[in-house]
Amino acid sequence: MVDVPGVGDRGPRQLSRQTLAEVIEPRVEELYSLVQAELRRSGFEDLLSSGIVITGGCASVRGMVELGEEVFHMPVRLGLPQYMGGLAEVVRSPRFSTGVGLVMLGIQQYRRHQQQRMQTGSFRQILEKMRSWFQGNF
Prior knowledge:
- There is one protein chain.
- The protein has one domain.
- The chain contains five helices and four strands; from the N terminus they run E-E-H-E-H-E-H-H-H.
- A two-stranded antiparallel sheet has the order 1-2. A two-stranded parallel sheet has the order 3-4.
- A hairpin with an 8-residue loop joins strand 1 and strand 2.
- The chain has about 140 residues and is mainly alpha-helical.
């Protein structure tokens, strides 16, 4: 049995895993079919020779990978964030993939911006002013 929280004024209730699976499985299969149709329409389906990676909070639900393989007829695997910093053991979960990815992208963009600033004339002007100040005072 699984506790299912209530929605609105409805209280929580218990459902069997079997009943829950009978509700969820057709929706996931429908979602996978929509993704497959979009891949075909875009022409990218033929470029997925090594398979598909699923990620996000629901990706870790038991049976998601297997159902994906049935629908897509290719290997499907669970994707995890490749984060190695502090709290890595906490955030190395599919449910944190989007958040970790956005933070890592932000860090990359910040570093790229810093490098560009250091290579521009304004940074050189500041260094030149500092150098002349030191020369004049020491």
